[in-house]
Amino acid sequence: MRISHPWSWVPQRRQAGLFAFELVLTLLVLLALQATGGPLRTEAAPAGIVSFELAGNDSLSQEILRSWGPTGRIYAGLNLGLDYLFLFAYATSIGLACAIIGQKGALHPWLRSLGISLSWALLLAAAFDAMENYALIRLLVGSTGGGWSIAARFAAIAKFSLVILGILYVILAGLSAVLVRLSPERGRSPDHVPPPLGGGQSG
Q1: pLDDT tens digits, residue range 166-179?
Q2: Element (H, E) at 36
Q3: In which region does residue 146 sit, left (phi positive, over 0), alpha (psi from -120 to 50) or beta (all else)?
Q4: Which of 17, 45, 124, 171 has its CA 20 to 30 Å from the CA of residue 60?
């Protein structure tokens, strides 16, 4: 039984166009996140919002929030709001890329299956991202305790892991598909039989 991917409802001839649109959207939102994330890089949060995501305990989270101050918190809120659009965009672009490559007949069957599985995993990454954002917003508006820092860290690590796996698959499996397509063996007719050595007939 062949497993379908999350975007199988989109006609195959239009999947590349949808991927291109979502990739452009991903890059544009990423630029916006970089712009709003600049003021969030402080001594307590050298990686900006990512330091906040991975803090893992309330004391460090509160230290980061104090280092941002009121203006920094506004930028953090804007950054987290944009991230809800970003998680939709990257889950679609990377997940659809995995699905498109996973449909290539030139790939080994296990690589095709992995691509389809990762296309679903990118939706899970987006769900983890949404959970992480919710936990961070709770911290941002003043919640303490309740394990919000721990929850955000767990969700962030799960999200980053799945996204990295998806990107690696797109690069490596995509390169493999291109190399197979360019292989000279691919253009040789299966009925072609090389002539015997010497080229002559025995008497």
Answers
A1: 999 999 988 887 77
A2: helix 12-37
A3: left
A4: 124
